[in-house]
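Case study.
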Amino acid sequence: MSSPSPALQQQVTLVELVDRVLNKGVTLSGDITLSIAGVDLVYVGLRIVLASVSTLERIEQEQS
Amino acid sequence: VNEPTASSATGIYVYGVVTSETPTALFAGVGGVHASEPTTLIRDSGLAAIAGHVRLDEFGEEALPQNLRDAAWLEAKVRAHDEVLAAAVGHTTVVPFRFGAIYESEAHVRAMLAERRDLVDALERLSGAVELGVNAYLDRERLRTRRAAERSVPTEAGSGRAYMQRRQLERALDDEVGSFAGEVAHASHERLASTAEDARLNPVRPAAGVGPGDMVLNGAYLVPVAREKELRAAVAELQERYADDGVLYELTGPWPPYNFVEREQA
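After joint prediction, the assembly is written out as follows.
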């Protein structure tokens, strides 16, 4: 079992971060004047970030 | 917060809430989602919103959907959101808001603070505590190899009976590895939760194909700052207990208590 590279480790941390910042935390739907334009869009963004993470992992795997 | 001259072109982004006694200086050096605008505190009714102006041509209803599709933009903003909240971690209790809470004016933020008395309760409930994340990954192949070595494998190649025995063994190993994944997740979560004030078990993330194996635990634990060491020790203890079975633990944080504010949803 090889330990992940620092770059991969950073991306893992990013996934942790995205998971929390976009999926958790208080949402105040009633109060927000300019709410984020629909939860679905956040998930679109999230998938892009996650996709870029798995792309990076593939690149690292090919290099090692 | 001074209203900029072109007030129609900006909104106020709120990162989270702290008590009104919190000094603004705590956030002085942190850039936020709009780097050129200072992060400040808007106080009302015993609460303070951690806030900063954002431009509506970046965060408005028209611009935001496009920007959310831009991975680089989203990554930078998500990091900035967390950096602001992280400045409070270890200094004062913070109730984190989800990404994208944008208000029209300071008055609207004050009205929210005056109205949302549940945020006062949340600050009390979360007082002095931080969130730690613990992930566990299982290297299934490693566990399988280890379990197989513990059994006698039939060696008479070509014999029908040996073939059947090998098939049976394969199936038994599949079952064992599967149930082990569940057991290790359960035992780990129980052990870690015993050191925490509160605990959350999140769905495991799908395998990335590389790295330490399949995720079997995605846990979040709310611990008093003074007892962080206990949780770290529990992780080390679990790592030692399960290392030979191919389990790898990963600890993240301390985080603002993102996973412990479900009650405060509107």
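Observations recorded in class. Chain A has two helices and no strands. Chain A has a mean pLDDT of 59. We will return to this complex in the next lecture.
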